[in-house]
């Protein structure tokens, strides 16, 4: 495994200034890295272990970027939860939990450690392998599409209030598709409504629903379908596949993003078929412990 040489690990751990952390588990991983958990692990050269990893991103005393991979997932989860609540929390992994010290960062980090040189990749003599770099999100593609789906899941209420349910009722099959743009702070829907029912409508939507149904009969790679908390008795569902992402609430509608439709968000009304599909996906989805 890249980055496991003892000297490399020691160099990364020496005065590592922790900037942020992330979980890399089947139920929760940086989706920008891949459509599923094994793909996200492969981006870091890691084996997709069932229990997953914690990723600690920081700088050493020279300012070099390092990603320290640990197998103490709970330690990292507690730190992230504390930070999300605005609480201070010292994240100092025990060296016995370190799986690998990888040069570079696989994710964008907007902050830097004070009192050390600006973030930069370690020298090749120390790194011994190519530094990790964040996926390119400057243009529309799989990475940006998945980030767009993350945004919708995080800001569900903002996106949902843009949808007029009366539009769904006018389409055969009980489903309409609008086109708000990812990142459009105004949240204005596109002017054209497109039928998104499984039969006879938007071809991209038909493909996504067909492939999502196939997941129920033949489970996809771990993490392709994930279920997380939502208000009430509902769950937030996230499914990804080749060229598409789907975000839904089990008691509501779904949103679809496609690689071949840059920046567009396609809402899918519940209609007669979506509720059953969402229920089936939720039953087989990976859930956080």
Write the layout of secondary structure elements.
Elements: H1 6-13, E1 17-24, H2 37-42, E2 53-59, E3 65-70, H3 73-84, E4 98-103, H4 124-127, H5 142-154, H6 156-160, H7 165-169, E5 176-177, E6 194-195, H8 203-217, E7 225-229, E8 235-241, E9 244-249, E10 254-258, E11 266-268, H9 274-284
Antiparallel strand pairs: 1-2, 2-3, 3-4, 5-6, 7-8, 8-9, 9-10, 10-11
Protein described:
It comes from Streptomyces lincolnensis. With 289 residues, the protein is of the alpha+beta class. The chain folds into two domains: 6-127, no CATH class; 142-284, no CATH class. It is 27% helix and 20% strand. The strands form three sheets. It has a five-stranded antiparallel sheet, with helices on both faces. A four-stranded antiparallel sheet has the order 1-2-3-4. The protein has a two-stranded antiparallel sheet with strand order 5-6. Strand 8 and strand 9 (244-249) form a beta hairpin.
Low-pLDDT runs of 5+ residues are 170-176, 183-196
Structure classification: alpha+beta
Largest sheet: 5 strands, antiparallel
Mean residue pLDDT: 86
In percent, how helical is the residue content? 25-40%
How many DSSP E strands? 11
What is the terminal-to-terminal distance? 27 Å
Number of helices: 9
What proportion of the residues form beta strands (DSSP E)? 15-25%
Shape: elongated
What is the radius of gyration?
Answer: 21 Å
Number of separate domains: 2
Please provide the ordered H/E string of secondary-structure elements: HEHEEHEHHHHEEHEEEEEH
Strand order of the largest sheet: 7-8-9-10-11
Organism: Streptomyces lincolnensis
Region (Disordered): 170-203
Protein name: Integral membrane protein
Biased composition (Polar residues): 185-194
